[in-house]
Each structure stands twice: as structure tokens, then as C-alpha cells.
Design brief:
Residues 82-97 have a biased composition (Basic and acidic residues). This protein is an alpha+beta fold and 118 residues long. The protein has helices at residues 20-23, 87-93, 97-115, and strands spanning 29-36, 41-47, 58-60, 67-69.
């Protein structure tokens, strides 16, 4: 006879004397709908006695990953994503030597002024 584990045959692991009502599955709940910018609706359930200020105004939509709000007519806007920049694009954005010297001189002068050495 092959045996394995400590479970008694015919029982569920984790099952105990408590029923669903003891786990809170039958507690009164309120359904709140959220909409993202693509029109996807997500329904979240909250306990009926929870104060209104504790219910979040926005969530992340599981459908699209975008922010979703409670206002169907005005959902949160799509996030603006920056396109990927190559190293060359960053090099082109660097300042010239003259601009760098001017910025450094200004920063040093501000430090001297703060210390009273100006």
C-alpha cells in the first residue's frame, strides 16, 4: 500500500471545523466600479461598513495596467511614456564646454555667497 503525506484520505488540506461564514465570505460588501482610459471596467468589492474616504479613488486596471478611476466619463489619462533613447541621443543632449563652465561658475558663486566668502 502506497502512502504519502499526513493527510487523512478523503479530506482537504487546510479544511477544518470552520465554515465559509466563519471566514468572512458572507460579509456584506459593496461593489465599486473603476474605468481606465481604454474603457475597461473593473469591479472591486469592499466591506459595507468601510468609510468612504478609505475606498481608493484610483487603482491599476488588471486589464491594461493603466490607472483606473471611479468616474466613468473622465477616467485617468493615458500615461505618457518616453521613447527609448540610445546612448547617442544622450550624448547629443550634453551641454557644450562653455555652458558647463558657466553653470559651474554660477554654482560655485552661489556656494561662496552662502558661506559669506563672496
Amino acid at each position: 500500500m502506497a502512502t504519502g503525506g499526513n493527510a487523512i484520505r478523503g479530506t482537504r488540506v487546510g479544511a477544518g471545523p470552520m465554515g465559509e461564514q466563519d471566514h468572512g465570505y458572507h460579509a456584506e460588501r459593496v461593489a465599486i466600479s473603476y474605468w481606465d482610459a481604454l474603457g475597461n471596467e473593473t469591479v472591486r468589492y469592499f466591506a459595507a461598513g468601510i468609510p468612504e474616504e478609505e475606498i481608493p479613488e484610483t487603482i491599476d486596471s488588471p486589464h491594461s495596467g493603466l490607472p483606473a478611476g471611479r468616474d466613468k466619463e473622465n477616467p485617468p489619462a493615458l500615461a505618457k511614456t518616453e521613447p527609448y533613447k540610445t546612448h547617442l541621443a544622450y550624448v547629443k543632449e550634453r551641454r557644450t564646454e562653455e555652458e558647463a563652465e558657466t553653470l559651474l561658475d554660477d554654482a560655485l558663486q552661489q556656494l561662496r555667497d552662502r558661506r559669506g566668502q563672496g
